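Hi U.,

Before I forget, here's the chain from the pilot set. I'm dumping it here mostly so it's searchable later in email.
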Amino acid sequence: MDGTVTNNAPWIITVGASTLDREFETFVELRNGKRLQGTSLSSPLPEKKFYPLITGEQAKAANASAADALLCKPKSLDHEKAKGKVVVCLRGETGRMDKGYQAALVGAAGMILCNDKASGNEIIADPHVLPAAQVTYTDGLAVLAYINSTDHALGYISAPTAKLGTKPAPFMAVFSSRGPNTVTPEILKVLLLILSRTRANTMTPILVDGRDGLEATPFSYGSGHIRPNRAQDPGLVYDLSINDYLNFLCASGYNSTMIEPFSDGPYKCPESTSIFDFNNPSITIRQLRNSVSVIRKVKNVGLPGTYAAHVREPYGISVSVEPSTLTFENKGDEKSFEVTFKAKWDGVTEDYEFGTLTWTDGRHYVRSPIVVAFGGEN
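Structure:
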């Protein structure tokens, strides 16, 4: 959901939930001939045969509501109705694996977990306590329609198998929190951190949902999906000192007295400081009317070399970098640069536009997401 990230300060790390190019697929086979792809890490059904199929609502305990039984909530299912059958549970309100646990408690042979509309196409391979499969919202509707069409519904859940090289991948999980940051808009979501050397890759667009094909934004994935091997040799890093963090507090409105408990002693805030100049790898500008300039610095943690700046401009924004090349003669050298954003037209909109700034020496690609929205006074 938009605006749900809670990384209100730069020392708070949020990790986006996204997929890999590997799935643990299982199939739900219905007696009417439909074969629906699902996912699971559970054990297979004891026998390869069709089992009686029943919804949680049809297995409702006497003192439970139909809605609670369909969700397979605790104490909502009846043992006599569910025993030996595959119970269909609707996703939502309670944990995915707990639904299977509740079905197992009343003797169910297996469970089909059907996504609700909010979960859409996002299915997750869980180690359920009984044979189970999770299916998409659309496929879940097909399962429920089949059960409602007959008095003798039958179904089977195949054993899970690992499938490699699945596409599209990665894509963002529906439940993963998204920006914009409602408290500190200048701080963008971070996807992963390895040994303080983060370098992510988004050469292939990351999707919101792998089946719908909608492209995600940095509000979902931050700097992108981590590539661990390359993260160990990033070339350049945006380094931060304790004073950088203290100055962030100054720019956020904290005075010296309020900051002292976080520092080694009395700390005097600079006469002028801006969150825009906090040395975050990402750059977020919430209200651009005319032009804004920000300062960043990068440290060389690799071999000597020269890096050139490459910019993919957000729509309606011109972006310039000065200097446009940085030469590092030694490991540990640190260089500053200024990025200037200018609106190409005079307007106010709440829509965010996205771009990137990448420093590269031909071997390393040090990428920073750019997020800009028009409006307000600079």
